[in-house]
Structure formats: C-alpha cells, structure tokens
Amino acid sequence: MKYMLLMQFGPQSGIPSMDTWSPEDVTAHIRFMQDVERELVESGELVDAQGLAMPGQTRIVRAGQGGVPVISDGPFPETKEFLIGYWIVDCEGPDRAYELAAHISAAPGLGGEPLRMPIEVRQVMSAPPQEL
Length: 132
Known about the structure:
Number of strands: 6
Largest sheet: 4 strands, antiparallel
Helix content: 25-40%
CATH architecture: 2-Layer Sandwich
Shape: flat
CATH topology: Alpha-Beta Plaits
Strand content: 25-35%
Strand order of the largest sheet: 2-5-1-6
Radius of gyration: 18 Å
Number of helices: 2
Structural class: alpha+beta
Mean pLDDT: 90
Distance between the termini: 25 Å
C-alpha cells in the first residue's frame, strides 16, 4: 500500500525556524533526513521524496477565459502552517507507515533534541484499471 507522509511547518508547531539553529544542528538534521531516504531506498519502500520551496514562492493558478492561466500569489498571509516536504512510501500497511512517520518526526533539532514534528499520514488512492 502506498502512503504519503507530509511534513508540515508553522508557528503552531513550536519548532524554531531553521535560520535560528546552529550550523551543527542544521547539519545533524540534514544528515538525519539523508539517512532516512537511504534507509527507505534500501528497504525498497521509497517511491518519492521531495522538499518544497517556501510559501513566498508559491503561486495559485486557475483557468481563466479560454483556459489561459490566471496566476496570483499564495498561500495567503493568514496561512499559519504549510507543507514543507513529503515522502511517498510503498509499505505493508498503515502500521508500518505510522512507524516511518514517527521515526521522521523524531528528526534532531536544536541541541540534537527530537523535534517531534507532526507528520500527516495519508493513503495514496488509485483509480480502478480502465477496460480497453
């Protein structure tokens, strides 16, 4: 079964912004995330993983007249939390996805303390096969 593990960030998470961390703490955090990816590749569970740009670089696009893209800034300033990255894993079931999410949640932060950041776990749904 495929699951998407979504890493959220925002002031309500209680996690200080990385630009306030020491270089050693940033290095330890990045090394942890690289190790997670390597472990998922080795276990055969990794489908995809990506970090995302900050919300200030995000644009909202809607179809305008004749399908022409209408582009606006977004998300809006009142947005308190935002998606910072994700993993798509293919594993035995929800219990394994929860184990992976808990492991990622414990990524080191300031002073090497586990961040305990929230990781949203959602099953990836697939459409039934089409008959030809």
